[in-house]
Automatic annotation (TrEMBL):
UniProt-annotated location(s): Nucleus
Protein name: cAMP-responsive element-binding protein-like 2
Organism: Muraenolepis orangiensis (Patagonian moray cod)
SUPFAM superfamilies reported in the protein's UniProt record: Leucine zipper domain
UniProt main location, coarse: nucleus
Composition bias type Low complexity, residue spans: 111-123
Family of the protein in this entry: Belongs to the bZIP family. ATF subfamily.
A Pfam family the protein falls into: bZIP_2
Composition-biased stretches (Basic residues): 10-21
Keywords: Activator, Differentiation, DNA-binding, Nucleus, Transcription, Transcription regulation
Range of residues in the leader sequence: none
Residues annotated as domain BZIP: 26-75
GO cellular component: nucleus
MF GO annotations: DNA binding; DNA-binding transcription factor activity
């Protein structure tokens, strides 16, 4: 009587609850398992390909940004020595031409960024 449980006045024998499973064809079950594993590996492969492409594109973006940063550092070094790089001269003359044509929206934000950046680096 130790193995039996009394629930609501009824004696229940230990064991699995619910319906007894129907006799499942073992070969069919194994084939479903194999198919599921194949699909899982295919999904995993696609996920890794996507992630590798994402990492690659981010690495390219980082390289481009590093090159741009190095260019700006060189410009700052040249300007600290009292030289104005030709690229900056070209940008300034291009902006001057735009302001004379009435499209001077580009020059003001650049100068405000430079002045705020300069105050941050000194403070």
């Amino acid at each position: 009587m130790d193995d039996n449980k009394i629930v609501a006045g009824k004696v229940k024998k230990p064991g699995k609850r619910g319906r007894k499973p129907a006799k499942i064809d073992l070969k069919a079950k194994l084939e479903r398992s194999r198919q599921s594993a194949r699909e899982c590996r295919a999904r995993k492969k696609l996920r890794y390909q996507y992630l590798e492409e994402l990492v690659s594109s981010k690495e390219r973006a980082i390289c481009a940004l590093r090159e741009e940063l190095e260019m700006y550092k060189q410009w700052c070094t040249a300007m600290d020595q009292g030289k104005i790089p030709s690229e900056i001269k070209a940008l300034l003359t291009g902006d001057d031409q735009k302001t004379s044509q009435g499209g001077g929206t580009h020059k003001a934000p650049k100068s405000s960024k430079n002045s705020s950046a300069g105050s941050n680096s000194q403070g």
